[in-house]
Amino acid sequence: MLEAYRKQAAERAAMGIVPQPLTAEQTSQLIELLKNPPKGEESFLLDLISNRIPPGVDEAAYVKAGFLAAIINGEAISPLIDKKLAVKLLGTMQGGYNITTLVNLLDNKELASLAADQLKHTLLMFDAFHDVAEKAKAGDANAKAVMQSWANAEWFTARKALPEKVTITVFKVPGETNTDDLSPAPDAWSRPDIPLHALAMLKMPRDGIKPEKPGSVGPLKQIAEVKAKGFPVAYVGDVVGTGSSRKSATNSVLWYFGEDIPYVPNKREGGFCFGTKIAPIFYNTMEDAGALPIEFDVSKLNMGDVIDVYPYQGKVTKHGSNEVLATFELKTPVLLDEVRAGGRIPLIIGRGLTEKARTELGLPTSDVFKKPEVPADTGKGFTLAQKIVGRACGVKGIRPGTYCEPKMTSVGSQDTTGPMTRDELKDLACLGFSADLVMQSFCHTAAYPKPIDVKTQHTLPDFIRNRGGVSLQPGDGIIHSWLNRMVLPDTVGTGGDSHTRFPMGISFPAGSGLVAFAAAPGVMPLDMPESVLVRFKGRMNHGITLRDLVHALHYYAIQQ
Fold first, then answer.
1. How distant is the alpha carbon of residue 411 from its chain centre?
2. What distance in Å separates the CA atoms of residue 418 and residue 425, rounded to the nearest whole number?
3. CB within 8 A of 241, min separation 6: which ones?
C-alpha cells in the first residue's frame, strides 16, 4: 500500500500537485499497518491517518471512524494510537461517522472531558444535538459544558477575527475573467480533483498572463513569483467571475491563493478576491469558501503590487504608506463573520447550533454575531417573486436587499458538477436530503462520455438515491427540462447551472457547494435581489417563443 501510494505521490509531484486523498480501500490497508507498523514508518503512518483522509461521510471516513472507535472500545490495538489520541482524531472529522462515538463517550469517566472538548467545536451535529441535550438535562456535567460552549459560540470566538490591516500581494488579471477561464469546460472531468483541475486555470494566453504550457497548464511561475513576496495573495481583476455558476472556479483560485484546512486534504478556504465588478454567483461561492470578496475600483492595482487593505475602514493603500489607492464599502458587515467562521455555510450552520443551544438553555438570542442590515419597509406591496420567496420563509413577502433563508422545494444537480456536489455533501455529513425534491441528471456526458464520466454515471446515482433523491439515467434528458415538469406555482428552487430557471415559481442558480447545502438542510442563503418588470412589445419572429425570450433574458440578467 505504501509503495503504491508513494508511486502515485511521485507522479503527481512531477506535475506540481499533491497526492490524492486516501480511498476507503487504502484506509483499510493503512489500518492494518497501524496495528503492526513497519519500523521507520511510524510518523508517516500517523500523518496519513490524521491528514490524508476526507472528513464527513466519505467512505474512507467511515473506515477511519470505525477503527478509532474500535481502539476506544478496546476492540483494536495500535502501538501508535492510544485511546486519547483516537478521541482527538475523531474530533478532527467535522461530523458524520464520528458523532455517535463522541456523544457516547460523554458517559465515559476516563474520556468524557476529552470527548466534550471535541464536540464543543463540532458544528455538524444535526439530530445528535438532542442526544447531547438529553444528557445535559439528566445532569451530565460534560454534556452541560458542551451545551454551554455552543450557546456561547466558542466554536466561533476561538477563531481569529480578520485583523484591522492585511498586507496583500496583487495577482492582477486585466479585463474580464469568466469562470471558464478559471475552470475550463474541456477540463470538467478533473473538477473533483481540485489540485489537478487548478493546473488549467488561466491556461490560455492573455494580456499580462503567461501560461506555463499554453492550452494546458496555467501561469504557475507568475503565481509562484507573487507568492514569493511572503504575503497573502489576492486575485484581482476588472471584472471577475462572469459566466456559468462553477464552484470549481472558486476552488481553483483558492487552491493557489487560499489557506490549508487542518485535517482536510486537497481543499482550501479563505483568500481574497477584488474586482471593479464581481459576478453575483462567483461572489457567493467565494463567500461560502470563507474568502473576502470586495468590489472597488482596481485600476490602480498592478501585478505584483504589495498593498495594505483595511477591511473595517474600507480603504486600500500602497504598502507602508498613506497613499490611498481605492476605497470601498462591504456589501454586508456579516461578511467579516463569514471570513472568521471559515465561510458563509459554516457560519449559518454554527449560528443555528448556537441558537438551538441557547433556546434549550432558556437564554436570549446571542449578540456575538453581526446582523445583516434590514432594508426600510417602503409600505408598498410585494412583487410575485417577493411573495413566493416570502412564502418559503414563512412571511408575507421579502424586500429587496433582505437576507433570508427560503425553504428549497426543488434542487437540481447536473453531471459536470455532480461529483463536486457529492464531495460537498460528504463534507456536510449529509446522510439524507431535507429538500422536497433533489434530482441528479447526466445530460452533459451522455453522448460522449469519457472513462471518468462512465464511472460517475455508475456511482453517483446510488449516492443520490441513498439520501432520498431522484437520479435520472444517461439519455433521459436535460436537468432543466425535468425540473420544469415538476415545479408548482410557489416552488422555490436552485440548480447547478447559471441558467437554471423554472417556468413557474422562482429559481436561484448556484455553484455546487450551495446546491449541496440547499439539498442537505433544505434551505438556501439568499440576499433577495430586486424584481425587474419587463414588457415585450411588437411581434415575435417566426420560431421564437415566449419561453425563449424569458430564458435569454434570465441568462442575461445572471451575467449582469
1. 16
2. 10
3. 177, 178, 179, 182, 249, 273, 275, 278, 279, 281, 282, 283, 286
* In the block, residue with C-alpha cell 510518523: 43
Helix, strand, coil percent content, the chain, rounded in steps of 5: 40, 15, 45
Closest of 335, 494, 514 to residue 428, by C-alpha = 514
d(CA 109, CA 113): 8
Q: In this structure, are residues 155 and 162 in contact, taking their beta carbons and an 8 Å threshold?
A: no
Residue 530's CB: how many other CB atoms inside 10 A?
10
The DSSP letter of residue 187 is G
CA angle 68, 126, 91 (to 5 degrees): 30
pLDDT by residue for the chain (560 residues), tens only, comes to 999 999 999 999 999 999 999 999 999 999 999 999 999 999 999 999 999 999 999 999 999 999 999 999 999 999 999 999 999 999 999 999 999 999 999 999 999 999 999 999 999 999 999 999 999 999 999 999 999 999 999 999 999 999 999 999 999 999 999 999 999 999 999 999 999 999 999 999 999 999 999 999 999 999 999 999 999 999 999 999 998 878 999 999 999 999 999 999 999 999 999 999 999 889 999 999 999 999 999 999 999 999 999 999 999 999 999 999 999 999 999 999 999 999 999 999 999 999 999 999 999 999 999 998 888 888 889 999 999 999 999 999 999 999 999 999 999 999 988 999 999 999 999 999 999 999 999 988 998 899 999 999 999 999 999 999 999 999 998 888 888 888 888 889 998 766 567 778 898 888 889 999 999 999 999 999 888 887 878 888 888 887 777 777 766 665 55
Query: 312: Cβ–Cβ under 8 A, 6 or more apart, which residues?
Result: 164, 336
